[in-house]
């Protein structure tokens, strides 16, 4: 009898956890820490000059903030999802809309608190800015022409969150100008991907796919330019192998799905292209970090394994 009673309870718990994982886009959560790693490596000029516990704490804060954004996104989009994506947690009835709202707000607040506790006041301020971008994207700017820009701002601010962890370190004072352009490039790349995603459910739009392609082109060109600024040459074998290899991977991975979507623009091709571009941000971050520290480039790239692995069971876009 005990076994019979335990089975429904266990099954219900598993379903609840699976629904929450779908709500927060669990594969995507692993794309947030590489943003923070990149920011810290950039400002430090290589090895982050802060305790690993601080870096890990701020990376956790970025995960909480990302989870808040996806949860609030589904809360706001519940009516649209009921029409176009009825399998999602809220329209399917697995998670109530009220519960999603409360969870999203709690995650947003927790992310700011953890960022401030782990990274100090500067990190806390940047986390508030990031939280504001999330609120704008899921609120006032939702469905407006500026919505995709707000999402790009979220990613740029996430890189800045990593920069803020080492804001008080001496090495941060001598960081070259190009370092501070990187969050802007990341923001523009994700803005292009979001623009493409927002047209996923409509009629085929090859123009939107071209915007995504432009974002990839900008990202690749920026990494090459950064390599020139750093002074990478053929004698820097570790840097060339890590940063160069990751950049080729990023371009090939995103290019394959984007070309497929451009040739046949419809939800069935654009959706996977969006998902690939989101996951591939990990590889882009790792390539840039690898220009300054091949070791940290490899660490950042490692996050792609759980992200891609979980994407086979949970949606990314």
TrEMBL record:
Membrane topology listed for this record: Multi-pass membrane protein
Pfam families, A to Z: UbiA (PF01040)
Subcellular location(s) per record: Cell membrane
Record Gene3D superfamilies: UbiA prenyltransferase
Transmembrane segments: 105-137, 178-197, 209-232, 238-255, 267-289, 295-314
GO cellular component term, pick one: plasma membrane
Domain of life of the organism encoding this protein: Archaea
GO molecular function, one term: transferase activity, transferring alkyl or aryl (other than methyl) groups
Swiss-Prot/TrEMBL keywords: Membrane, Transmembrane, Transmembrane helix
Database matches in PANTHER family: CHLOROPHYLL SYNTHASE (PTHR42723), CHLOROPHYLL SYNTHASE, CHLOROPLASTIC (PTHR42723:SF1)
Stated name of the protein: 4-hydroxybenzoate polyprenyltransferase
Organism of provenance: Haloferax prahovense (strain DSM 18310 / JCM 13924 / TL6)
């Amino acid at each position: 009898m005990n076994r019979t009673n335990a089975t429904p309870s266990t099954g219900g718990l598993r379903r609840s956890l699976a629904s929450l994982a779908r709500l927060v886009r669990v594969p995507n959560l692993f794309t947030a820490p590489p943003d923070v790693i990149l920011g810290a490596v950039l400002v430090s000029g290589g090895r982050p000059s802060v305790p690993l516990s601080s870096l890990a704490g701020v990376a956790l804060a970025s995960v909480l903030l990302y989870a808040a954004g996806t949860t609030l996104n589904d809360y706001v989009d519940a009516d649209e999802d009921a029409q176009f994506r009825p399998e999602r947690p809220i329209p399917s009835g697995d998670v109530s809309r009220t519960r999603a709202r409360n969870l999203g707000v709690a995650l947003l607040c927790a992310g700011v608190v953890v960022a401030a506790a782990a990274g100090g006041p500067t990190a806390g301020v940047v986390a508030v800015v990031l939280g504001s971008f999330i609120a704008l994207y899921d609120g006032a700017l939702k469905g407006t022409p500026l919505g995709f820009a707000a999402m790009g701002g979220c990613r740029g601010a996430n890189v800045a969150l990593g920069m803020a962890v080492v804001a008080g370190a001496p090495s941060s004072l001598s960081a070259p100008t190009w370092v501070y352009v990187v969050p802007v490039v990341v923001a523009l790349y994700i803005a292009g991907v979001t623009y493409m995603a927002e047209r996923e459910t409509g009629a085929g739009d090859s123009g939107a796919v071209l915007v995504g392609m432009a974002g990839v082109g900008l990202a690749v060109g920026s990494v090459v330019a950064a390599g020139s600024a750093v002074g990478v040459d053929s004698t820097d074998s570790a840097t060339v192998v890590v940063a160069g290899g990751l950049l080729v991977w990023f371009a090939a991975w995103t290019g394959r799905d984007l070309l497929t979507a451009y040739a046949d623009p419809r939800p069935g091709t654009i959706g996977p292209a969006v998902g690939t571009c989101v996951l591939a941000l990990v590889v882009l971050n790792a390539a840039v970090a690898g220009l300054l520290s091949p070791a940290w480039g490899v660490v950042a790239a490692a996050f792609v394994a759980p992200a891609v692995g979980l994407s086979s069971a949970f949606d990314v876009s």
